[in-house]
Each structure stands twice: as structure tokens, then as C-alpha cells.
Amino acid sequence: MLIINLNIRGLGGGTKARYLREVIASEGAKFIYIQETKSMVFSDAKCFALWGGNNIGWIHNEGENGGGSLLSMWKKEVFGYESHVMGKGFIAISGQHLRLSHRCVIVNVYAACALREKERLWEELTNNKAVPQDPILCLCGGFNSVRTRSERKGVSN
Length: 157
Description:
The protein is an alpha/beta fold. It has helices spanning 14-27, 44-51, 115-127; strands at residues 3-7, 31-35, 56-61, 70-75, 79-87, 90-97, 102-110, 136-142. Strand 7 (102-110), helix 3 and strand 8 (136-142) form a beta-alpha-beta unit. The protein is globular and about 45 Å long.
């Protein structure tokens, strides 16, 4: 199952929506995770237009006033949605890879830059982690992690 992950930094204009449709079509995406949509409201029509078709499922986490917002979309003939858990900075979707008949949990993550908020996110993800019958776990997203202190800009902790 091809999963595409993008931090789009705002889906307000037509240019990014067009780019997204092109990426989905050219790569043959089955699942797409988008961070930083900066949109508080999505509809079937908007998601169908973004994907370029209507045989999809989707879940949106509006974040805080659009900041940190997440959108997860998938092709229904590839992934069978069962349930989801949503929290600040994530959407965890449980379902079945229909072709392989494997249960899986795919998590769309957008971690805050602040260390305390990031720790809360990981604690919540750990508390909601997949149970043993969910052998496949995939984490995608924007983790806002740095390797060295010199990479850090604008945040002191």
C-alpha cells in the first residue's frame, strides 16, 4: 500500500490542491497523510476534489484554529476502515489492508515544536498504541525533531 505523507503548510489556494491531485495520480497513492492543512472544515466534496475521485474515506483533525490540522484519506478498495482515535497532534486509523487481509493501524502525526507538548503527544500515542492483534503499525507525519541544537530555530527548549 503506497502511503504519501506531506506537510502542505496550507491548502487554501488552488495551486497546492492541483499539486496534491498530481502527486496522488502520478504516484498511484492508496493512502495520503497531510499535515498543516490550516483548514478547520473539510467536506466530502472538498476531499473528493483533492483526491480526484469519490471512492475514498477520510478523517480530519482540525488542530487548534487550523494550526496543526491533519487530513487522512484512503482508497476504500484498498483499506477497510474500522475505527479511529484522535487527539492533539494525531489521528490513528485502524482497519484492514484488503488485498493482504492484514489488520493495521496507520497514524498521522504532527508534533509540536515545544518539548513539553511533544512529550504529551508521545505519551498519548503510547497509551493508545495498537493491541497485540494489530501487528502492523505505521507512523507517518511531521515529527519536528532535530539532530543537533544548531538545527533548532525559534524555539529555546
